[in-house]
Design brief:
heterodimer; A: mainly alpha; Cytochrome C Oxidase, Chain A; Four Helix Bundle (Hemerythrin (Met), subunit A); 3 domains; two-stranded antiparallel sheet; 4 strands; 67% helix; globular; B: alpha+beta; 2 domains; 5 helices; 36% helix; elongated
Chain lengths: 908, 252
């Protein structure tokens, strides 16, 4: 499909194809913005339904179940599928421009993030139509979130909503890895991190928080999905299930609100500076305040749990940290206000929205202080005070983001928006917003998620409903403005804003595909310059980095390094002999991200309804499909060789074996087919599509060259792939941390030593020990493989990769035998065997070591891919062996995780 | 100066802890007072800050001439992003706001300690939330559904739990609220200080019937309550431990 030749050529923007295959950050930014606005409307319609229901105490048009669904999905759509993606649409478009980069570090992954986001959002919407959707609130509290407490009509829809959120987290994780790698490796020379425009600074902090917070959420959602699909007993556990969820969810949930808000903060700072005509006051303190909040955001989560019976000491600590986190915001608000003093303030539409946002945020922030006083929080719990508070701060943030869209609209579209319509939008919006949310403070005693409220509150709830419709109406003005201006707005200059100062205002509106027509941006002289090719050549050869000398950039970059040819060396397929000036041709198109979006939608839709009895088989088929595709795609891409046939044959054999096993398990193939719900086939289809897509994407030739000159401290010696892998592993650490933490929490809650009663005697150390040896040996094998690759010894490389594979398979077989033995115990305390659903000890054991096992399987599939490629001569030499090194990092990580799991689950 | 004035103001406010003669101060009164102070202060701060913001936005609008000072650094296209100075004033404002916030919180901390260290209770009632009703179990074993009877002006301790999902039991009129979590019990105390019937609600989404999961809370004069209570009790025993003794203990 996407051959190299087509890859470089993007179809024009007027075609549908263009938008399906693009990997360019600007296009993807637009896709995110448009899609997010779609989800805003969806979530907004649900909100209007809520307000209609609240018109009269006792409700009007919805049943209890219907209302709960709407409330839950409203929250999920707004928090996950609207607000952060909207911010990231702007970030995708603007941040590379502000940094002086031509695209993100991994353009195809950027497209993957988008399509998987869309897939997950569609799945969330579809969940309404699979019976009934999730009804337990966007906070998904346990045990209301498990099948036991979900009405049967809502089982599949609820699972779909949960899986949609899980898929969304995958999209976010890929995005975080991409943005972090980009921002640390592709800044224009002369731009230290602290020199970035403030919006970009807010994004880099947002992305750090995203990386760690969403990993915790992923842990929570995977465990919840397991409770649904596999029947594990985490959240139904009497001793600690409910509280475990609150810890996991809020550990994510609190940083999440800053993840939502920080981009807005960055936009506020940018627009206040531009439209006051004055530099941001106390900029370095502003940045420091943001960093403090980002760090502190991870230590305040229990303020959502003040009434759960935690002890006074803990409550006091969290009260202190909560108040602590409000203080940097005070500083930032003052900074914005003072920026206007002695300024030349212009009331442009973006400025009005951001000024409005500051006011809304101040109201929201003050009411947050109320919530931080524990003794007051005790009464605000579960009431509209909380609802009003978070809508003021969160939608206040969205207000700034709408301002941001107006601000960058001329750059993105090349035309000006209509000012009159913008003013009308702002007026209606601001009045509607306050009519809707302020009354909620007045009638704060209304319980949340309730439509039967005190008669005396009726007037204020009606005011709120009127406000809601006014606010909704303002969006109609907004969309009309956007559409009309795109169609017939006045042409916009490069810089429509007096006092716009960052790089994006120095390039055309809209920018050409590679962003900087005048040359590579550079700040080394202290001001922005665009370096032509010759200049770049001179500088890059002059600053050839050697291990000892990389610190002497010789430029005004305090501690930064200007790194040249190593950058070019990282792109996997280009030939690189010298640091020549011409950048390798950059690709901008690929079909695979779109395909992966489809595959993920299909797979997760299938999983929503997959019966417990069938859960294993699509996974097994997926492995076989993957192997088959390695053979097929490998033959096409690298040229046929017997090894490709071998893979295909193995895969076919595998599929036959799986079918046999399935037949044995179900009592005949006919019985298996008869017993399988449509979801089984959907999941298997998704597995097929997914395997094909991933393999093809791995083999696709796609150039994404790094800039010839870049500011890269502190990662100048770390190539982009390696940096990306490290960042990804950091989030994987948190994921396993969530699982291990959950195990420890449940064990303490159930009695640390009593735990032994929940485990059969037959669960002994030996299998774990043997597995430890397998993994350690396989790590050794991977190291040897890397050495062989660097020394261009193809045979040894293949040999060691095969050894790694064999040892990994040994691990899996050993584990399989162990599990089979435990599943089939007879007699003793565990008559029916010790299986996944038996008790909390078995649930934690199988799920945690199972997650690890899944990581091993993924590693082995990648090993097969490496073997197929190495057979045809890839990875030979110091540079090309990089891929083996990155895989090695992953593999060592997997082994190290086992070194933690083994003592926890086998010894103590 | 400001700090001094502020400390005097805060110090002058009564500490929100007990005690009127005999009866400890009810959490409801305490909440009411603290909330009023916060609301008053919050409104004041909000008006001042927002007013100041709008004032500056207006005063320094382009064309007014007020922004035309010589020493101002204006952003220029292509400049390396940098700050506009002004750290000192920022820190002053930040410092003032921090003092306000921190002293408010410290002031409430003593109230928190008061609420956490329950006085000797006169009666303990178990509350069990269940989709979608409330069960109340009195010391003598009597069980009522969706109706909680209480004696006026007594210290009532609630031990709250759930038999199924996460609920939350709250009586807004008496400012008492507790999570009802399956598998564990949370405790809260309060003083019902007015006779009559008020409502209790569920404050944590718990399923299709969450919206209507209410209970009547009937506060009776002590004598009336004792009469009612004496006539109840589980079948096995009339005067179980804590029955009459618990009631008697609160008087005097």
């Amino acid at each position: 499909m996407s051959e190299h030749g087509e890859g470089g050529h993007l179809p024009p923007k007027s075609t549908v194809t263009r938008w399906l295959v693009t990997t360019n950050h600007k296009d993807i930014g637009i896709l995110y913005i448009v899609t997010a606005l779609f989800f805003l409307v969806a979530g907004g319609v649900l909100a209007l339904l809520i307000r209609v229901q609240m018109w009269t105490p006792g409700g009007t048009i919805l049943s209890g179940m219907g209302y709960n669904q709407i409330v839950s999905i409203h929250g999920l759509l707004m928090v996950f599928w609207f607000i952060s993606p909207f911010a990231f649409g702007l970030a995708n478009y603007v941040v590379p421009l502000q940094m002086g980069a031509e695209d993100l570090a991994f353009p195809r992954l950027n497209a993957v993030s988008y399509w998987v986001y869309l897939a997950s959002g569609l799945l969330a919407v579809v969940s309404f139509f699979l019976g009934s959707s999730f009804q337990g609130g966007w906070t998904l509290y346990a045990p209301l979130n498990v099948p036991t407490f979900i009405p049967s009509v809502a089982q599949i829809g609820s699972a779909a909503a949960i899986l949609a959120a899980t898929l969304f987290v995958a999209s976010v994780t890929v995005s975080s890895v991409n943005f972090l790698t980009t921002m640390y490796r592709m800044r224009a020379p002369g731009l230290r991190m602290r020199d970035l425009p403030i919006f970009s600074v807010s994004i880099v902090l947002t992305v750090w928080m995203m990386l760690f917070a969403f990993a915790a959420l992923l842990g929570a959602l995977v465990i919840l999905s397991a409770d649904h699909i596999l029947g594990t007993t985490y959240f139904t556990n009497e001793a600690g299930g409910a509280l475990l969820w609150t810890h996991l969810f809020w550990f994510f949930g609190h940083p999440e609100v800053y993840i939502v808000f920080f981009p807005a903060l960055g936009i506020m700072a940018e627009t206040f500076q531009t439209f006051s005509g004055k530099r941001l006051v106390g900029r370095k303190w502003f940045i420091l305040a943001m960093i403090l909040v980002a760090l502190q955001s991870f230590v305040v989560w229990m303020h959502h749990m003040f009434l759960t019976g935690i002890n006074l000491e803990v409550k006091t600590i969290f009260m202190a940290t909560t108040i602590g986190i409000s203080l940097p915001f005070d500083l930032m608000m003052f900074s914005l206000i003072y920026t206007m003093i002695k300024g030349r303030v212009r009331y442009t539409v973006p400025f009005l929205f951001n000024l409005g946002a500051v006011i809304l945020f101040i109201v929201g922030g003050i009411t947050g202080v109320f919530l931080g006083a524990v003794v007051l929080d005790y009464q605000f719990r579960g009431t509209y005070w909380v609802v009003a508070h978070f809508h003021y701060v969160m939608v206040g943030g969205a207000t700034a983001m709408f301002g941001g869209l107006y601000y960058w609209f001329p750059k993105i579209v090349g035309k000006m928006y209509d000012r009159k319509l913008g003013l009308a939008h702002f007026g209606t919006y601001f009045v509607g917003f306050n009519l809707l949310y302020f009354p909620m403070f007045v009638v704060w005693d209304t319980p949340r998620r309730v439509f039967e409220y005190s008669e005396g509150f009726t007037f204020w709830h009606r005011v709120a409903t009127v406000g809601a419709f006014l606010l909704a109406g303002s969006f109609l003005i907004f969309f009309y403005n956007l559409a009309k201006s795109i169609h017939s707005g006045d042409p916009a200059p490069d810089n429509p804003w007096e006092y716009g100062s960052a790089i994006e205002w120095s390039i055309p509106s809209p920018p050409p595909i590679e962003n900087f027509p005048k040359g590579l941006p550079s700040y080394t002289s202290g001001r922005l310059e665009f370096l032509d090719d010759e200049e770049v050549a001179t500088r890059s050869s002059g600053a050839e980095p050697t291990p000892a000398a990389h610190a002497d950039g010789g430029t005004a970059t305090d501690g930064g390094t200007v790194s040249a040819s190593t950058a070019l060396a990282q792109a996997p397929e280009t030939s690189m002999e010298t640091a020549h000036v011409e950048e390798a041709h950059a690709d901008h198109a690929s079909w695979w991200p779109f395909a992966l979006g489809i595959a993920s939608f299909v797979t997760f839709l299938g999983l929503a309804g997959l019966q417990w009895e069938y859960f294993l088989w699509p996974g097994l088929f997926a492995v076989a499909f993957f192997v088959a595709f390695i053979g097929i795609v490998g033959a096409r891409r690298d040229g046929y060789s017997p090894i490709h046939s071998l893979f295909v044959l193995l895969a076919i054999g595998g599929i036959m074996a799986i079918l046999q096993l399935l037949a044995i398990d179900k009592g005949g193939l006919d019985a298996a087919i008869a017993g399988a719900s449509p979801y089984f086939y959907v999941t298997t289809l998704g597995a097929f599509l997914g395997a094909g897509t991933l393999v093809s994407m791995g083999w696709e030739s796609f150039q994404s060259p790094e800039p010839a000159l870049a500011e890269q401290w502190p990662f100048s010696k770390v190539g982009k792939w390696k940096l990306g892998m490290w960042v990804f592993l950091a989030s994987d650490i948190v994921l396993f941390g969530a699982f291990i933490g959950s195990y420890l929490f449940m064990r303490v809650a159930n009695g640390w030593n009593d735990w032994h009663h929940l485990i059969p005697e037959e669960h002994v150390v030996l299998p774990g020990l043997i597995n430890t040896y397998f993994l350690l040996a396989s790590s050794f094998a991977v190291v040897m493989a890397l050495e062989a690759a660097k020394r261009t010894d193809r045979r040894k490389l293949l040999g060691w990769l095969a050894a790694t594979f064999a040892l990994g398979v040994g691990f899996l077989i050993n584990k399989g035998l162990e599990w089979q033995h435990l599943f089939n115990l007879h007699g003793g305390a565990f008559e029916g065997g010790w299986g996944i659903t038996t008790n909390i000890a078995s649930s934690t054991f199988y799920l945690t070591t199972g997650l690890h096992g899944a990581h091993v399987i993924v590693g082995l599939l990648i090993t097969l891919f490496l073997i197929a490629r190495a057979w045809k001569g890839a990875y030979m030499g110091e540079e090309a062996a990089g891929t083996v090194e990155y895989f090695g990092l992953y593999w060592h990580f997997v082994d190290i995780v086992w070194l933690f799991l083994f003592p926890l689950f086998y010894i103590v | 100066m400001l700090t001094l004035a502020w400390s005097l103001a805060i110090g002058g406010l009564p500490l929100p802890v007990g005690s009127a003669a005999g009866l400890p101060r009810s959490p409801a009164d305490q909440f009411g007072e603290i909330f009023l102070v916060f609301a008053g202060l919050g409104t004041l701060v909000g008006i001042v800050v927002i007013g100041y913001t709008l004032l500056n936005a207006y005063k320094y609008r382009r064309g007014s001439g007020n922004g035309e000072k010589k020493d101002v650094v204006r952003p220029e296209l292509g400049e390396k992003p940098g700050g506009g100075g002004g750290g000192k004033k920022l820190f002053l404002s930040f410092g003032i706001s921090a003092i306000i916030v921190l002293s408010l919180i410290v002031w409430t901390y003593s109230a928190l300690l008061y609420v956490e260290n329950a006085p000797e209770e006169d009666i303990t009632i178990k509350v069990e939330g269940e989709q979608f009703s409330w069960r109340f179990i009195y010391p003598n074993g009597e069980t009522t559904f969706n109706e909680l009877r209480l004696p006026k002006d007594k210290v009532v301790k609630l031990e709250v739990t759930s038999t199924d999902v996460f609920h939350n039991f709250g009586i807004p009129d008496f400012r008492v609220k507790a999570d009802a979590i399956p598998g564990q019990t949370t405790e809260k105390w309060f003083i019902p200080d007015e006779t009559g019937t008020v409502q209790a609600h569920c404050y944590e989404l718990c399923g299709a019937g969450h919206s209507g999961m209410d209970a009547d809370v009937i506060v009776m004069e002590q004598g009336d309550f004792e009469d009612w209570y004496a006539g109840t009790g589980s079948n096995d025993t009339q005067a179980t431990v804590g029955g009459d003794a618990a009631l008697a203990g609160g008087d005097a």
